[in-house]
Amino acid sequence: MAKVYFYYSAMNAGKSTVLLQSSYNYHERGMRTLLFTPALDTRAGPDRIKSRIGLEAAALTLREDENIFEHVKGAHAAQPVACVLVDEAQFLTRAQVEQLTDVADDLNIPVLCYGLRTDFQANLFPGSAALLALADTLVELKTICHCGRKATMNLRVGPDGRGVREGAQVEIGGNDRYVAMCRRHFKEALKA
After folding, report:
1. Is 188 one of the catalytic residues?
2. Which domains does the chain have, with CATH numbers?
3. Which has the closest alpha carbon to 57: 105, 24, 14?
4. Model confidence, pTM
5. Looking at CB atoms within 10 Å, which of 34, 59, 61, 161 has the fewest?
């Protein structure tokens, strides 16, 4: 029986790198994968997943109203799909996460989702909340704070480099806007 996996972490843990490596492993064995990335994240350009260390691959761009199950079902009927991989899964809707569970349960295709657990205010993203509730397997990918401890928080920084407390939940950015930190240093940065 196929499962839904949620690989989550703070920023800069290598989620996209692990996703691309997993897809490569399937391809190396002659198996087809489908890679998805939400339309909201445009950092790698259209229809691309790119890691900070330079790995990249073509991907299908998902809109909020898109039915992933129907897309995968159609693609699988045309040519068998061995695995579905989703980058930036925190941006999925609850309905899309439910559709991914249908991919695993009804089509018997494993689904590997990679994303942030929480935003810059330590709140769950909708996609992450749904995955934490519905995924069969949860895997934390670890990264470190500047102090060497495990980073679990995502500090949003302003142009002055200081921590930001308020704003929209979603603001696309990389190292220029976010710093992964342990909880202690996250709280200290917001007090400054």
Report:
1. no
2. 4-142 (3.40.50.300)
3. 24
4. 0.90
5. 161
